[in-house]
Specification:
By secondary structure, the protein is of the alpha+beta class. It contains five helices and 16 strands.
Length: 274
């Protein structure tokens, strides 16, 4: 299920250039999907979680959300630097090859979702506001991320208003991955552009048949299921189009740009709440 040794063509790598040694390609899923256990250490995970919890969330139906790097927008994102607590993680993702290597690329946008034990997220596609590659770092708890091939032609993103109207069905499940605490999942290509992904709103769920089954501990495999607790999900990507880059703390920002940033923030909060 999981290829033991990463090789040319792994997610995030150009032909002939593998990802970091700890990141394993999951060949049973369409497109480019790769997974790493313990991508962040225990101490770093605790520091990341504390930094997230110290900042305000936007309350949505079934989850809490933070947005960093600017409001994604089809006409071009007004990008802002990632906060200090996320920069080390972004640099490590760049060094791992998760976002390419020629030249090495670091993600410039992050969404942080906070889920309760039985909360999930509906099947969705991340949309056209981002380049077709995403990295998810999970903190505090387990969850099973499920990939679907939608039956309808339209895909919807509950993270932003860039995608089309909701599909009437989430379609056929093509595979799943167990997201362990401190792990990294990278998906791109067909897995990003053609499939949707979801987390079921359940507190206990089976892990039988997950694509990374062979990487799991004997104890987890013997249990055959996980019980979810409160979980933080850090999704890092690159925006598809950049209008400009501003640093509100250190740069002079023209009044019209500030007004547009404020307008987009209101628009984004309204859109993701619907």
């Amino acid at each position: 299920r999981a290829r033991a040794d990463p090789g040319p063509g792994d997610a995030g790598a150009a032909p002939g250039r593998p990802l970091g040694a700890a990141i394993r390609r999951l060949d049973v899923l369409p497109g480019e999907v790769a997974y790493a256990q313990g991508f962040v250490g225990t101490e770093e995970a605790a520091q990341l979680a504390a930094a997230v919890e110290a900042r305000p969330f936007v309350a949505l139906h079934g989850r809490l959300l933070q947005n960093y790097g600017g409001v994604p927008h089809l006409s071009g994102t007004i990008c802002e630097p990632l906060p200090e607590f996320l920069r080390g993680l972004a640099i490590r993702l760049r060094e791992s090859g998760a976002f390419g290597h020629d030249p090495p690329i670091a993600p410039d946008q992050a969404l942080v979702n906070k889920y309760g034990p039985s909360q999930g997220i509906a099947a969705h596609n991340d949309g056209e506001n981002f380049k077709p590659r995403a990295a998810i770092v999970s903190l505090n708890s387990y969850a099973v991320l499920r990939f679907f091939r939608p039956e309808a032609a339209t895909l919807d993103s509950p993270e932003g208003p860039s995608a089309a109207a909701k599909s009437p069905s989430r379609g056929h499940e093509v595979g799943s991955v167990l997201l362990e605490p401190n792990s990294l999942l990278v998906f791109a290509g067909a897995a990003y552009e053609e499939l949707t992904h979801a987390i079921d709103p359940v507190e206990t769920e089976s892990i039988e048949g997950v694509a990374n089954w062979d990487l799991l501990s004997p104890e987890l495999r013997a249990a055959g299921q996980i019980k979810r607790e409160e979980r933080l999900s850090l999704t890092l990507r690159n925006v598809a189009r950049v209008q400009c880059v501003v640093d509100l703390e250190h740069d002079y920002v023209a009044p019209d740009i500030r007004e547009e940033m404020a307008r987009r923030t209101v628009w984004w909060r309204r859109a993701i709440s619907q």
